[in-house]
Amino acid sequence: MTEKLNLTRRRLTASLLLTPLVPSLRATVAGEPAIGVWTGPGCGCCHEWIKHLQAKGFAVTTHDGGNGEARTRLGMPVQYSSCHTGEVDGYAIEGHVPAREIHRLLGERLDAIGLSVPAMPRGSPGMDGPAYGNVVDPYDVLLVRRNGSAIVYRSYR
After folding, report:
1. What one-character-per-residue DSSP string does the chain give?
2. Are 27 and 59 a contacting pair, CB within 8 Å?
3. Quick check: 26 pLDDT over 80?
4. CA geometry: angle at 113 spanning 127 and 154, to 5°?
5. Can you give the pLDDT at residue 137?
6. HSE (side-chain half, CA atoms, 13 Å) at 10
């Protein structure tokens, strides 16, 4: 009986320790990039952006709230802020960045803090469709360098 109890304890302990790793383990096995996303309080467009990422091959772990703290931890300057912050493979992803640009960054492996679409431009992923009157505003995806400066990584017009 003691052996059975010890085995049960070991299994329970292992499952408790490994539970936080499940999304990244799943992503690694499936070949999907794992991204954590911290949303703004009560923000609906954040969840629409998450759906966009999932549809484009990302394994997403969502954290409701805490985007300001995540932005600070990742070193993303506040002038590039938006309503949600992501982290993928050490890069900060701020705002409604299209998945194709995140995939591009992961392929290029640039020395940078990450990517940003400041504010919330209509027509960007998560800010698109009938809920926004099908309006598409021009916007830029910025590559934020380690020194805090930024350059246009891609323009959407």
Report:
1. -HHHHHHHHHHHHHHHHHGGGHHHHHHHHHTPPEEEEEEPTT-HHHHHHHHHHHHTT-EEEEESS-HHHHHHHHT--GGG--SEEEEETTEEEEES--HHHHHHHHHHT-SSSEEEE-S--TTSTTS-SGGGTT----EEEEEEPTTS-EEEEEEE-
2. yes
3. no
4. 50
5. 96
6. 6
Q: Which two tokens stand for residue 157?
A: 């017009």
Q: What is the pLDDT of residue 44?
A: 85
| Residue 21 pLDDT > 50 | no
- 78 token code pair: 């506040």
Q: What are phi and psi of 93, to 5 degrees?
A: -125, 110
**pLDDT for res 40:** 82
pTM (predicted TM-score): 0.80
Residue ranges of domains in the chain, CATH in brackets: 32-156 (3.40.30.10)
The pLDDT assigned to 54 comes to 98
Does the pLDDT at position 2 exceed 70?
no
User: Taking 60 as the threshold, does the pLDDT of residue 62 lie above it?
Assistant: yes
In angstroms, what is the C-alpha Rg of the chain?
Answer: 18
